[in-house]
Amino acid sequence: MKCAIIDYGTGTIQSVHNAISTLGHSVYRSRSDDFDQADVVIFPGQGAFGPAMAALNAMGIRDSLKAYIQSGRPFIGICLGFQLLFDGSDESPGTQGLCVKQGHFKLFSGAGLSVPHMGWNALAAPETPSVLSAFEGHYFYFVHSFYLPVPDTPIPGMVMSNYGGHFISAIATSTQLMVQFHPEKSGESGLQLLELFLKGVA
């Protein structure tokens, strides 16, 4: 498959590129809204919410990226590329995200809780009707200081992890995979997740 990685100046782009290439797919980096040229658009990231949104605005791709995701076309969002899909974050008060999904990120806090949350954590996905259901109890690698609280009304396709309390660690549909963790840094489980998803949308 032909995969486009959105290059908006954040970290982890090379590791995502390497993981997708390892799986045998073609990959290119994009700084424009040439989404129609790709089979899958990948939105990775590691950094701060506000500067990342400013970068998308400066590149002129904010609205087209939002429209692409809302269309339900094949898409992967990773870490900061997961957070930016939502309304906002306490990291950058007053900065609006893409608002594809409803939710606001909060800073981890609590006695004895190290911030950022950095390390391996399991997925709770016992009844998820998506590719994530195959990874119940599997461990993935996280690096983040802000989390998406679990809402009173569950988001379709969501799975959770626990760090000082439950938070949403991923959301998936048949064509879109959105994860707080880094599959590209999660060893065999991460590569298996990416490969199963890409096979599903091929």
Short summary:
With 202 residues, this protein is an alpha/beta fold. 24% of the residues lie in helices and 28% in strands.
CATH topology: Rossmann fold
Number of helices: 5
- CATH superfamily, by name, is Class I glutamine amidotransferase (GATase) domain
Determine the mean pLDDT. Answer: 94
Largest sheet: 10 strands, mixed
CATH architecture: 3-Layer(aba) Sandwich
> Portion of residues in helices?
10-25%
Poorly predicted ranges: none
Domain count, please report it: 1
Radius of gyration (CA) equals 16 Å
Order of helices and strands: EHEEHHEHEEEEEEEEH
- Strand-pairing-aware structural class: alpha/beta
- End-to-end separation in angstroms reads 7 Å
**How many strands appear in the DSSP assignment?**
12
Give the CA-based shape. Answer: globular
Instruction: Name the CATH class.
Output: Alpha Beta
| Share in β-strands | 25-35%
Task: Give your account of this protein's structure.
The protein has 202 residues and is of the alpha/beta class. The protein has a single domain, classed as Rossmann fold, CATH 3.40.50.880. The chain has five helices and twelve strands. It has helices at 13-22, 49-59, 62-70, 80-83, 187-201, and strands at residues 2-6, 26-30, 40-43, 75-78, 88-89, 104-107, 117-122, 139-144, 146-149, 158-162, 166-172, 176-179. The strands form two sheets. Strands 1, 2, 3, 4, 5, 6, 9, 10, 11 and 12 form a ten-stranded mixed β-sheet that branches. A two-stranded antiparallel sheet has the order 7-8. Helix 1 links the parallel strand 1 and strand 2. The mean pLDDT is 94.
